[in-house]
C-alpha cells in the first residue's frame, strides 16, 4: 500500500508528460496530413489522437483506483486501474490501428497521387520525434527505476508488473517513435519514387504496429482483471515466512491474488501446533496477520485458516491447482527443525 502511494506521483508525472507531448503532436500532424494528403501522416495523426485520449483515460484510472476501501468495495478500487488501462488498449486498436489500416488500403487501391507538403511533413515528424522522445525517456526512467527496486531487468518488469499505467505509456511512446520513422520513410519514398505505394505501405505498417501494441496491453490487463497470482518471488517469500513461524507446523496451502497495483491478497491454510488452545490460536493468527503486512508491504489483506495437514481432500485440491511438484513443496514446508 505504501509502495503504491509512493509510486503514484511518478506515474501521474509520466502520464502528464505523455499527454502534453501527444496533444501538441496530434495538432501538428493533423495540419501536415491535410496539407500533404499523406496516408501515413493521416495514420500518425490518428495515432497521436488515440494516444492523447489514452493519457486522459490513464489519469482517470490513477484517480479512481486510489480511492480507499468502502462497504461496496471492501478490497478497494485497485482493479479500476486495470479496467481503464484495458479500455486504453482497446482505444489504441479501434481509433488508431483500424483508421490507419483503412487509410493505407484506400491509398493503395485508389488513384495515384502526387507527393505534397514534403517540407512541413518532415518538420512536423522531426518535432514529433523529439517530443515523443522526451516522453519516452521519462517513461523509460521510471521503468528502469522500478526494475531496480524489484531487482529485475526491464524486460522482466514489463512482463510481471501490476502497474499498467507506466507500461502503457512506455509501449505507446515506443510505438510512436517507430511510427514516426515509418511515416517519414513513407512520405520521402513517395516523393522520390512518385508512387503512393510506399505511403500506403507505411500506413499499413503503422496499423500493424498499433495492433500489436494493443494486443499486448489488452492481454496484460485481461490477466489482471480476471485475477492473477502475485509475483512468484513474493509468493515464495511469504510461504517461507509463514512456514517458519514458531506456532506453525506446516504450510498446507497458499493462494494469492493481485487486487490492485502493489496490493496483494494472501489466503493461507496452516497446520498450527496442536498444543494451542482456541484463545491462543486467535492471538497468534492476529499477530501473524499484522506482522506479515509489515514484513511485506505489498500484502494488503490476509486470511489465515487453521487446517490439518493430512486431509486427503484438501491435498487433492492443492495438487489439482498447482500440480504435484508445488503440492509436494508445500507439504514439506515447515517440517524442518526449528
From TrEMBL:
Subcellular location: Membrane
Membrane-topology annotation of the record: Multi-pass membrane protein
Transmembrane segments: 82-105, 117-139, 169-188, 200-218
Secretion signal span: none
Keywords on record: Membrane, Transmembrane, Transmembrane helix, Transport
Domain Cation efflux protein transmembrane residues, every copy: 15-225
Any single Pfam family the record assigns to this protein: Cation_efflux
Entries under InterPro entries matching the protein: Cation_efflux, Cation_efflux_TM, Cation_efflux_TMD_sf, SLC30A9
Main localisation: membrane
SUPFAM superfamilies reported in the protein's UniProt record: Cation efflux protein transmembrane domain-like
Highest taxon in the source lineage: Bacteria
NCBIfam families associated with the record: CDF
UniProt cross-references to PANTHER family, sorted A to Z: HUEL-CATION TRANSPORTER, PROTON-COUPLED ZINC ANTIPORTER SLC30A9, MITOCHONDRIAL
The protein, known as: Cation diffusion facilitator family transporter
Organism encoding this protein: Angustibacter luteus
